[in-house]
Design brief:
98 residues, alpha+beta, Alpha-Beta Plaits, four-stranded antiparallel sheet, 3 helices, 4 strands, globular
């Protein structure tokens, strides 16, 4: 696993219920990839191969639009280590959760 990303997808919609519905569709897609992920209150972290993660980031935008958002903003953080492994979600957060 040479990369991890954290993505926050923000559909530009008029109410919170619609925003949650669309973000839930994006999260369902992330879950369907089979990669290790962690859903937080403001972003979702995903671990895997860099190129695969970049494709997932791209598809998250398309899913939000297909779900009804007229436009979407995304904030993405990338940790990439071409040779070797990046720190895992487990190593980063497990100690902070019960």
């Amino acid at each position: 696993m040479n990369a991890s990303v954290a993505i926050q997808v923000l559909p530009q919609v008029s109410d919170d219920e619609e925003l949650i519905r669309i973000v839930d569709e994006v999260i369902d897609y992330i879950k369907s990839t089979g990669l290790n992920y962690y859903v937080g209150p403001c972003e979702t972290a995903i671990e895997g191969d860099y190129d695969q993660l970049m494709d997932i980031v791209k598809e998250c935008q398309h899913i939000a639009i297909r779900a009804g958002a007229p436009s979407v903003a995304a904030y993405v953080k990338v940790s990439y280590k071409p040779e070797g492994d990046v720190l895992t979600i487990e190593k980063k957060v497990t100690k902070h959760h019960r």
